[in-house]
Amino acid sequence: MDKYLSRKLISIGNEIVRLGYEQSKPLVEKLDAAEQKIFSIRHQSQLDDEPEMLGDISLRVLAEIQKITETGESPGVPTGFHDLDAMLSGGFQPGDLIIVGGRPSMGKSSFCHQIAFNIAFTYQSPTMIFTLEMSKENVTQRLLASESWIDSGYLRSGRISETQWPVLADVVKNFGEVPLMMDSQSCPSVTEIRSKVRKAIAKRGQVKLVVVDYLQLMADGSDALLVQKIGEITRQLKLLARDCNLPIILLSQLSRGVETRNNKRPILSDMRESGQIEQNADIVLGLYRDEYYSPDTPDRGIAEVILLKQRNGPTGTIKLLFDPQYTKFKNLARPNY
After folding, report:
1. Residue 290 to residue 281: CA distance in whole angstroms
2. Which is nearest to 118 in space by CA: 81, 159, 158, 90?
């Protein structure tokens, strides 16, 4: 099999050389095609791995359970939100695809960006954000507001007081030590995301979390093909999560049908092209803030994170504090477990 794959690699190498000489295709398209060809060989080699015996697998699983018992450390990646981590048995698991959905202004981007920051800052572990809608500078500005406790509107307008400048400078200095990487390429393919994640792992070490913001911007094109594209994107991102042994958070819009109901909390069928998303996702989270619809609600400042699907665990709802002034989510109470 190794000889066969080596011959295949030589053949694909020749195809890539010919591709390089083609003048009719854009460079980005040629690079994408070349990486797809190489990835196909890697995928073929994985398909040809020998099936593993149950006894060998169980010994490895037992060793992992023993390690968790002795150290108290779960293999999950903690989000920094205690109640959510408890419901997820310690955090997002490596290899998982997590879908986070919400209607506009629910705070889904801020929520996911903050998780990526929490992991990078607290554990000094590399994380990545692919921001298709906002620029890297806009995302950073939101993080600055969140960490400096300076109104995001003041940052946008430059209305910074003399006492706030030193605070802002300290936060920027601390950001220099945070291994959070951002990419704001518009409409990247999964192949391009895969390439950048692999390069980051080679350069920075194991990446702990990838955030892609958001799904529908990757699936541009006619409505007739949208369901098919959504299915292929989520399937490929799930494979990337498994191949690189890391969780991937993929943000998704909810359908406008939410607005026609009395209870506007998200449900699984609200996900656009929900069948494909639900099938490929390990975890589906929905965000909801009641005060957006009912300004006089007693739940002002409260965000609900609704666990709509968890392949290996329970569903339910946890509550967080949300401060739109600083675009910041916070734990509702200190953990007692």
Report:
1. 26
2. 81
Rounded Cα distance between 118 and 136, Å, is 17
- 73 burial type by CB count under 10 A (0-12 exposed, 13-18 middle, 19+ buried): exposed
DSSP state of 333: S
Nearest in space to 194 (alpha carbons), one of 38, 3, 12, 25: 38
| Contacting residues for 271 by C-beta, under 8 A, at least 6 apart | 99, 101, 252, 254, 255, 277, 278, 284
Q: Are 92 and 79 in contact (CB under 8 A)?
A: yes
DSSP annotation string for 202-255: HHHS---EEEEE-HHHHS-S-GGGHHHHHHHHHHHHHHHHHHHT--EEEEEEBP
* Mode of pairing for the β-strands spanning 97-102 and 283-288: parallel
In this structure, which amino acid lies at residue 262? N
pTM across the whole model: 0.85
What the chain holds in terms of domains, given with CATH numbers, is 76-331 (3.40.50.300)
DSSP-assigned letters across all residues of 53-70? PHHHHHHHHHHHHHHHHH
Strand positions, DSSP E, the chain: 97-102, 127-131, 180-183, 209-213, 248-253, 283-288, 302-310, 316-323, 328-331
Per-residue pLDDT tens listing for the chain (337 residues):
567 777 777 888 888 888 888 888 777 777 777 777 777 666 665 555 678 889 988 999 899 889 888 877 778 899 999 999 999 999 999 999 999 999 998 999 999 999 999 999 999 999 999 999 899 999 999 999 999 999 988 999 999 999 999 999 999 999 999 999 999 988 888 988 998 999 999 999 999 999 999 888 887 665 667 778 888 899 999 999 999 999 999 999 888 888 888 999 999 988 866 677 888 999 999 999 999 999 999 999 999 999 999 998 999 999 999 998 888 999 986 655 4
Q: What is the DSSP letter of 17?
A: H
Question: Which residues contact residue 163 at a Cβ distance below 8 angstroms, ignoring those fewer than 6 apart?
Answer: none
